[in-house]
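Render this sequence as a predicted structure.
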Amino acid sequence: MKILLSGASGQLGQELLPLLEQRGDVVRVDQFTPEGDRRIIRQDLGDLRQLELLLNRMRPDVVINAAAYTAVDQAEDHSELAFRINAEMPGCLARWCSVNDRFLMHYSTDYVFSGESERPWREQDPTGPLNVYGESKLGGEQAISANGCRHAIIRSSWVYSGHGNNFVLTMLRLASQRPELSVVADQVGCPTWARNLARVSSLVLERLSADPDPARSGLYHYCDGGVVSWFDFAHAIFRTAHKLGLLAS
């Protein structure tokens, strides 16, 4: 099996890579590559024409899109870029997969919802994003569904890891720089370790990639167990970091 992984140098991409390499040859693609790493094909993911040429050249059996524009606040001022990466690019991947009968795995977010529910979100719940980031991610979901390829869209929440940009690493960095931090306590969610999300993705890939039944395609929700506020999450991060000696007392 040949697997094309976009976003290969991101936090989820780095966790997916060792699992995907057990299943076949992985073509690593990203906009940003670690200096000197020639194993990753550097590709402007917003250049859809060049992306399609890459797909035609590599001819993967499976496409996994772990790339995204994730700067939630900055998306308000850079909406065109956010929609290009989060909506138009997944649509491009889906069109290619549809024409070539390939399987596409894509990742989305709880930001496609309004945030007003008092219970966990279900796949069939109506969407209602409140910001540009959420609208762009919903646009990606819709573009994939509209193209009719075999696919799995996995929505998750509050993803973190030891790589890339995420809440855990941001809190650790700020705590080492500032004597005091302010974190909101009125927003709750389910933090999800990228490695767990990668493991679940591997199982989904195993079960669905070779399944010709289009009824199996669609939306799937996954997050780790437990519900916390951003404040509680930060408190747990600092408590654990002190125990591990990552932060001075």
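Summary. The helical segments are 11-20, 48-58, 79-100, 132-147, 167-175, 194-208, 230-243. The first helix runs from residue 11 to 20.
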